[in-house]
Design a protein that fits this description.
The protein is α+β, with helices and mostly antiparallel strands. The protein folds into two domains: 439 residues, no CATH class; 129 residues, Heat Shock Protein 90. The chain has a six-stranded antiparallel sheet, sandwiched between helices. α6 packs parallel to α8, α11 runs antiparallel to α13 and α13 packs parallel to α15. The two termini are 24 Å apart.
């Protein structure tokens, strides 16, 4: 038996991350394929028009990102506290807000697509791009309701233990988009409007796949239109605001830089910058997916006030970012000429600029990962204001200032050189922020990871008032029960509660080992006992097959009175017993 094991958190992180990046990468590939086919088959003007629209596609999903991320994080909190009905109401509300906003935005774009295209940069030296820009914008927004619904549902699927369907829908949208793109180019000989429409149709197909999630009744998330908690709207938007602010900043950055490049006399500079954006669109899922998983798991652990596990999660994500984004960046740097050639054809100067753009993106990738992961960590622990500030500085503030400051000296290259420069500047700002907060809290924690966590002293109980153990075998169950007894005895607990806690630990752990451990799998159980005031709280978490012991007991309580007598006795002696299944983890909380 080990103290404070971290295998479950580590494995949950990597499994969730793998599912997230596979689905995100599949979605991203569709957008990149659009760019490749447009660049290779439709010409420089069409790829430039595609590049002009790219920033606004981020803005179009702004509200949905806020609702999806904020609603999911709010739902995780509610699930952790056992408020399942309200959690389902939050999910329903998120879907209504997401799809409703998409319909309104679609109508507005259809009415004002010409002014929008001009605002995006189809003016001045790039006025010839107006028709193609309007065409792609029109075809793209037709699918916005399906896109919003798809992106919102994706945020909830992992929490509801259905990562497989998320990955499946991602591959469906990608394959559909590729096939429809080829149909547009080689069969009907369409242009940018038809390419945007192909993307829209592929999302409607993907949405149909995701909706099959609700065929089964035993789902954590479900639609409950009778009890929609409209008063949760503010909380949802607040929790999603840092991501929304980042989207707005990213769009502003794209528009400002596109307009700067449109005023330049350098041929194909917008197209070269679009290759930089395409590299980001394709590969940032490796980083954003990691950060998103950090946000979800941190939110769950922060609700439990579990400092040791938060530290392990942060350390795991930090090391994973260095390994994954570092190795990816090295490969991208080497293959930059090939990657750029996928989008640029027949223009040596533009191809040279695009290659440089890709290489500077690669240089900035690991630092970008550190910044965005820390931002999402701040969201998870509730520091939304600072998370929002970092998001704005990263996506626009420092980046735009760096671009405009460097432009007089190095010209159009400033648009991609500024990317790694911005990430390094932001890391220095983050270090200063960490130092200031620790000083303000009156803390001088030892070790790098303890300092960056920014958790106040009263977060979690003192070390002496908690017991964290991990078991991996049946033989360790008795030892675990004994450790629980000794912990309670050391805190002066009365005999009745000592017996209840020891029995709860032994009964729950033994049932998990016997029923949930799978041959050939390295399953384990994390157990935590904390003394909080006059109350003892036992938390048992495992990564075995999804199994609700409380529900199982109720199913057989009348038919077999002697069924699971130990579990029955534990429930009768406890103040409260709650079970939830989220992130493919069984979570049982017993309050005594």
């Amino acid at each position: 038996m080990k103290d404070e094991g971290n295998r479950i958190i580590r494995n949950t992180f990597f499994i969730s991350y793998f599912a997230t990046i596979v689905s995100s990468l599949a979605f991203s590939i569709g957008g990149v394929v659009d760019g490749v086919i447009i660049g290779q088959c439709l010409g420089l003007d069409s790829i430039s028009a595609f590049a002009l629209v790219s920033p606004v596609t981020i803005l179009l999903s702004l509200f949905t990102v806020m609702v999806s991320v904020g609603g999911r994080n709010r739902l995780v909190r509610l699930v952790g506290s056992g408020e399942l009905d309200r959690a389902r109401g939050v999910f329903t509300l998120s879907m209504i807000l997401s799809v409703g906003s998409a319909i309104l935005i679609t109508i507005m774009i259809l009415l004002f697509r010409t002014p929008v295209a001009v605002l995006l940069g189809a003016t001045g030296n790039s006025a010839r791009l107006l028709d193609k820009t309007r065409g792609y914008l029109l075809g793209y927004v037709i699918g916005l309701p399906a896109m919003n619904a798809t992106w919102t549902l994706r945020g909830y699927m992992g929490v509801d233990n259905n990562r497989t369907l998320t990955v499946t829908s991602a591959f469906v949208v990608t394959v559909s988009d590729i096939l429809l793109d080829l149909f547009v180019v080689f069969v009907i000989h369409g242009d940018t409007f038809e390419m945007g429409l192909a993307t829209s149709v592929s999302y409607y197909i993907s949405l149909l796949v995701l909706m099959t999630h609700f065929r089964r009744k035993e789902r954590l998330i479900r639609f409950t239109f009778r009890r929609i908690p409209w008063n949760e709207t503010g909380a949802i938007l607040w929790k999603g605001l840092p991501n929304g602010a980042g989207r707005v900043a990213n769009t502003i950055r794209g528009v400002l830089i596109n307009r700067l490049l449109a005023a330049s006399a350098v041929t194909g500079c917008i197209a070269a910058y679009s290759v930089h954006r395409q590299a980001d669109s394709l590969l940032n899922c490796l980083i954003i997916g990691m950060a998103d998983v950090v946000a979800v798991i941190t939110t769950l652990l922060a609700g439990e006030e579990n400092r040791p596990m938060i530290k392990r999660l942060f350390k795991t994500s930090f090391i994973a970012n260095l390994a994954i984004s570092g190795s990816t960046a090295a490969v991208l740097f080497l293959i930059a000429p090939f990657f750029a050639s996928l989008f640029i054809k027949g223009d040596p100067l533009t191809l040279e600029n695009a290659t440089g753009a890709v290489r500077f993106y690669a240089i900035g990738m690991p630092f970008y990962g550190m910044n965005i992961i820390y931002q999402c960590y701040l969201e998870g622990i509730g520091r939304n204001r600072m998370a929002m500030a970092f998001s704005i500085m990263r996506e626009a503030g420092i980046l735009v200032l760096s671009t405009y400051a460097l432009f007089p000296a190095i010209g159009v290259r400033a648009t991609w050189v500024s990317f790694p420069v911005t990430q390094l500047i932001l890391l220095f700002i983050t270090a200063g922020y960490i130092a200031v907060v620790n000083r303000r809290l009156g803390m001088q924690p030892e070790g790098f990871f303890n300092r960056v966590l920014l958790l106040p002293r009263d977060f979690d109980v003192p070390d002496e008032d908690r017991l964290d153990k991990t078991i991996t075998t049946k033989e360790e169950v008795i030892e675990l029960s004994g450790a629980a007894w000794d912990f309670c005895e050391a805190h002066g607990c009365d005999k009745r509660r000592m017996y209840a806690i020891s029995l709860a630990v032994e009964e729950m752990a033994f049932n998990t080992v016997q029923e949930g451990f799978r041959p050939g799998k390295h399953n384990s159980i994390d157990m935590r006992i904390i003394k909080k005031g006059d109350e003892y709280i036992v938390r048992i978490r495992d990564d075995c097959l999804i199994f609700d012991p409380v529900k199982q007991l109720k199913l057989y309580s009348d038919e077999v009175p002697m069924h699971h007598m130990g579990l029955r006795l534990v429930i009768s002696m406890a103040k409260d017993v709650q079970y939830t299944a989220a992130l493919r983890l069984n979570n049982l909380v017993v309050r005594v």
